[in-house]
Amino acid sequence: MAAGLVSSPGAGGGGPRLLVRLRRALRLRHYSRRTEQAYGGVSGSTQNQAFAALLFLYDAVLGRPLGMCWGLIRAKGTVHVPVVLCRAEVGAILGEMRGVPALVAALLYGSGLRLLEALQLRVKDIDFERREIIVRSGKGDRHRRTMLPEVLMGPLWRQLDARRIEHEADRRRGAEGVALPMGLARKLPGASGEWAWQWVFGAMREHKSEGTGKRRRHHLHETVVQRAFREALRLAGIPKRASCHTLRHSFATHLLEDGYNIRAVQELLGHRDVSTTMIYTHILNRDGRGVRSPMDRLVAPGPQTTLRGPLPPNRQL
């Protein structure tokens, strides 16, 4: 099996290696780099991911579709209820963050963005007049619009002012400009250096382009925000297994708590199917899913009971 993945299955092994052909097929179909990494590293994937990777390999790369695979059983998926922070916890975490990571984290909660969606925002994606953020090529390569919180408009203006100064300095040094999506580099040859296409959150340092060897600035790496979030979580003393993505979960849950329609929340999150959004209703005491415990209606046996009443102030959840 390992040898088959290294050498070509053709006669004499004269063709390109199979993994190279797999990557070419994925890129030709505009699959994301994350999918490419997952499909190219089947040994560490889940059963279903490995099965999907093999189907793609035989269909798109080898040209030998497997068709119906009788007797194969797909692994049953596990439904995970996401970790959600209460509003006070969100405020405590954001209060411990500083600088650009704090602004990125605020957008995850305030606009319901995924981390990479926030880091890959370009200047033209921020619409201050309409108070909207345009998310281009989000998960599943879908575009959507979401809200721009009024409280973040000022910090975003200041961030863009700082980025414009940085961008102008980059151009004076002869930097190549930012990477453009898909085939836009050919259609719009000068766009990579235009202000509208620059990253809102640029990396702190430039890097050398693989293709041309010129210097260009990538967007801020996700680990910068992830490290800052973990440290803020620790400083805030919140004993939850939370991550940056938890802010997006909290955005959706808090909107539903406020009575907003689940279809509207679905659009803001960019979910293709409302059933994906419905997972947040499992957290809420609404829509008939949540019932009050009979313990909460139990009449106390007498004045000496210790079972009734709120938690002491130092034990509030």
Q: Explain this structure to me?
A:
By secondary structure, the protein is mainly α. It has 2 domains: 60 residues, no CATH class; 201 residues, hpI Integrase, Chain A, CATH 1.10.443.10. 41% of the residues lie in helices and 4% in strands. The chain contains 13 helices and 5 strands. The strands form 2 sheets. A 3-stranded antiparallel β-sheet has the order 1-2-3. A two-stranded antiparallel sheet has the order 4-5. Helix 5 packs across helix 10, helix 6 crosses helix 10 and helix 6 runs parallel beside helix 11. The N and C termini lie far apart (53 Å). The N terminus is likely disordered.
Could you outline the blueprint of secondary structure elements for this entry?
Layout: H1 2-6, H2 18-28, H3 33-40, H4 47-61, H5 87-95, H6 99-111, H7 115-119, E1 126-127, E2 132-135, E3 144-147, H8 153-172, H9 184-187, E4 207-208, E5 215-216, H10 222-236, H11 244-257, H12 262-269, H13 274-277
Antiparallel strand pairs: 1-2, 2-3, 4-5
Helix pairs in contact: 2-3, 5-10, 6-10, 6-11
Give start-end ranges of low-pLDDT stretches.
1-12
Within the largest sheet, what's the order of strands? 1-2-3
The SSE order reads: HHHHHHHEEEHHEEHHHH
CATH superfamily of the largest domain: Intergrase catalytic core
Q: How many helix segments?
A: 13
Give the overall shape, derived from the CA principal axes: globular
